[in-house]
Design brief:
5 helices; three-stranded parallel sheet; mainly alpha; globular; Rossmann fold; 3 strands
């Protein structure tokens, strides 16, 4: 199971790994925190006229996410539907509980999260914070789920 912040993180961050596991017959699950509703569209900012707006952009990004996941061999895509660049305002307990629910349902043998972050020139730090929050939620969810992941030994406290 990959727990990521944004649509396109699955391709730009861990796509090769997801495709490798899927090609080996392993069930791969993808959980994405946002639908990418605050990003640019073909280089246009949210307030530029050619930009389709947050709702339309979220639908476009979700379609791209699902197409990429299909190409990578991902079995199931789930989206938490938090607003892009606003994960720092989400209730952490609620987010962790939701991730735990997805983990209980899919019972992954391991989970992945992005550890490196890209900060684009001219942008502030919410992208980094968003990735850190989704990673922190993922780690806490694993602990609450009670299943160790790769690199961990023993059973974690419930």
């Amino acid at each position: 199971m990959a727990v990521l912040a944004h649509p396109d993180d699955e391709s730009l961050g861990v796509g090769g790994t997801l495709a490798k596991y899927a090609s080996e017959g392993i069930d791969v699950f993808l959980l994405t925190a946002t639908r990418g509703d605050s990003g640019r569209f073909r280089g246009y900012r949210l307030d530029d006229h050619p930009h389709p707006g947050p709702l339309a952009l979220a639908n476009i990004r979700e379609g791209e996410l699902r197409a990429a996941a299909s190409a990578l061999g991902v079995r199931e895509v789930s989206i938490l539907d938090y607003h892009d660049q606003q994960l720092d305002r989400a209730n952490p307990r609620e987010a962790v509980a939701t991730i735990v629910g997805h983990m209980m349902e899919s019972r992954p043998h391991s989970r992945m999260r992005r550890r490196s972050f890209t900060i684009w020139p001219g942008r502030n730090r919410p992208g980094k914070l968003t990735s850190q929050l989704s990673g922190n939620w993922s780690r806490r969810s694993t602990a609450l789920n009670g299943r160790p992941c790769r690199g961990q030994t023993g059973r974690l406290p419930q």
